[in-house]
What we know:
The complex is a heterodimer of chains A (218) and B (468). Chain A is an all-alpha fold and 218 residues long. Chain A is 73% helix and 0% strand. In chain A, helix 8 (162-187) packs antiparallel against helix 9. Chain A is flat and about 65 Å long. Chain A starts with 7 loop residues before the first helix and ends with a helix. With 468 residues, chain B is mainly beta. Chain B has 2 helices and 43 strands. Chain B has a 22-stranded mixed sheet, with no helix packed on it. Chain B has a 21-stranded mixed sheet, with helices on one face. In chain B, strand 5 and strand 6 (101-107) form a beta hairpin. The longest helix of chain B is centred in the first third of the chain and has 18 residues, at 2-19. The interface between A and B is large, with 49 and 54 residues.
Amino acid sequence: MKSGCRDLEKALRGDAPELRTAFEEHAASCPACARELAEWAQISAAGPALKKRWASPELWPAIRQQLAEQSQRPRVSRAGFFSRALPGFAIASLFVLASAGLWVFRNSRGREPLTSSWQTTKDPLLTERAVDEVEAAEKQYLDSIDKLSKLAEPRLASATSPVMLNYREKLALLDSAIADLKSGIEENRFNTHLRRELLAMYREKQQTLQNLMKEVPS
Amino acid sequence: MIRSRVSIARAVLAALLLAAPPARAERDPRSDFDRDFSRTLPVKAGERLDIEHSQGAIRITTHKLPEIQVKAHISVSSSDTEGAQKFGEGIAVSVEDTGGAIVVRTRYPEKKWHFTGSGHVSYAVDFDIVAPETMPVTARNRFGDVTIDGVKADTTVSNANGKVAVHDGKGMSRIDTSFGAIELLRHAGPADVTGANGSILLTDVGGPATIRNRFGSIVAKNIQGATQISGGNGSVEARDVTGNLNVTNSFGTVEATGVTGDVSINNNNGAVTVENVSGSAELEGSFGKIRASKVKKGLRVRSQNGEVSAVDVGGSANLRTSFGQAEADRIQGDLTAENANGGVRASAIQGAANIRTSFSQVLVNGVGGRVDVDNSNGSIEVQVTPGKAGACAPVSLKTSFGPIRVFLPDGGGYAVDARTSFGKIRSELPLTTSGTFTTEALQGKIGDGKCPLTLSNSNGNIDIQKAK
């Protein structure tokens, strides 16, 4: 099978392994495609680290322990009412949890996974708990920005095309806003407006870097 | 089996309960200090409001009374009770009548103490001001939103790191902000708006509007005056503009609909779509598609590497591009299309058609006036329509390395001069030859031979056929 520069997207989709192989063969003799393929490989490698997880490390050990305890207990001939009703309770509990999850996510529109009080409060100053939440969110953005910045750095350093120069200008503008807000926050840590604005700038910087990485190098 | 399922369900339920995070109590080891400031001053005719502020919102509404009510809510939070109170009391809000203006200022005390560990002081001052509705307003803010409702006089707002919303106003509105959205709604007067990184929305503006933005989107709807838009990296949408519209942009799409005057758009790397223009339109771009429809007067399109199309143009249309298809349909005036490495398709052209391209196909169907096509390395196919009241519409088609096919209407009279090399000349219509007659060169008449039909080719056939 022959492959060309236009087949990159199909090859990356992974539907047809032979297309991927053919594209890799093509990339061996095409420096532009080889660079593109290498960058996608870097993004794929960085992807799992960017993925957000809600870790419940206690969950599986607790299930395992409960099962072990169950198996150790002497068997009783007749299950009580609670035991008989337990599957129903478990299903109902899972349903309630799922509904709560749907309710929480109902208006996120892909911006923020959770609607926290600090996002909607009209109070000019945040509580400590809210600031903890904001700082946790900031840290996630910063981790993501850090990884994306490393990937974007070579492209930005050698930027000559108008679109790349434009990205560089926008990132510089965002960095100046971030620096401005951070200096404000140093003096005024619980100010709701400052914290929201800083988070919005981080979000925009992350989005800008993601868009930059989607640009096909000219 | 059932026992096993019960065990698993019990284990899952218990584990879920165990894994659920405990409800976290609010833990705010800090002291809050709140203070309200309120002052009312009479306002003399012609006085303006001048407010300079930071670290908080400014909200201005209006009333009919000749007085201004300034209220400020001061919020301070600190890990140090005494410090919170000291800092809060040190925040000074001043309201002064200088004769020409009511001047409102906020001054924050210098933080002269240092905390160790998690010690802190944070603060904000939010203003709620009610001013006479005819009082002009100048507001400068940092790190806070500005909202102005119902001011029927000039407003000037300069903000940094905050949104600006001006609603139901009148008079000249000047707004600039960095890193915040701008919203100007239902404004009876001209507007001059500058943003940097936020979106800009203007609707129902009763005067000319000048809008600048660098990285945010721009939407301007129902603008009753000439509109000048300088965008950058965001999309631009202009609808229902009474007057001329001028747009420059770089990387976003530009859409303009319903303009009563002339339209001029220059967009470097994004698509341009223009519809319902009562005047003429001049559209320029580099890499994006350019589409124009329902332009009542003339249309001029310049693109470097994009597709261009013109539909329902009241005057003449002039299209130029390269590496993209050029299309023109229902043009009431003349059509001039220049392309390179891209095809040209033209139909229902009431005036003359003058078409140049290379390395692609030219298709022409229905031209009221003269047809002049010059192609290199591409085919030409032309459906000739009868001239109005027997008027002569000369046809001249020239190409190389591609066939020429021309369809002539019944009853038309043409003086045919056809030449090719390495090709054949064929005619479906009866032709009276005169002069040269070989398979590669032909001169003769169709009908009365009134109208020149010049067909020139190199390395391709020439077919003269009856109109379909």
